[in-house]
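Appendix B, record 7
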Amino acid sequence: MRERGAHCPLCRGNVTRREKACPEQALDPENIMRKFSGSCRCCAKQISQDSVGNSNRSETSTSDNTEPYQENTSSSGHPIFKCPLCQESNFARQHLLDHCNSNHLFQIIPVTCPICMSLPWGDPHQITRNFVSHLNQRHQFDYGEFVNLQLDEETQYQTAVEESFQVNI
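C-alpha cells (predicted):
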C-alpha cells in the first residue's frame, strides 16, 4: 500500500519536506507546465513540452459510451462503488481510493468517476482522463460529511448563508 502525503503530479513520487515547506508559487500553472521541458526530479522520466501540454488537464467533457450510474449502498449506509479500471466491485470510497492507488497507480485510462456520478450534481458524461489522480485530488473525504446530499444546491446555499449570518451576529 502507498504511503499518504504529497506526491509529484508527474510521476507520483513523494514530495520532500523541504519542498513542502517552501513550495514555488505557480501563478499560472497551465502556462508554466506548457513551457516546462526536462526530467522529473523523482523518477528522472523525460517530460516533453508536447506531453505536458496534452496531458495537463485531467478531465474533459465528452458524451461517448457512458451510462448513468446506479448508486448502491452498503449495510453501513455508505455508498459502494465499482472500480472502472478493473470492474471489481463493493468498494466504499476509501477502499476504492486505496485499491486504485495500490493496483492502478500508473494506468491512465479515460473513465467516468463512479463517486462523482453518485453525487447529486454528478454528470454521467464527465470523463476523467487520469482516474487515480482524480481520486487523490477530489475524493480524499466524503462529501456527505460536509453537505446534505439529499438537498439541492440552492437549498444548501441558502442554509449556508443563514448559518453564516447566525454565526456573525
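Remarks on this record: The radius of gyration is 19 Å. The chain has two domains: 1-56, 58-167.
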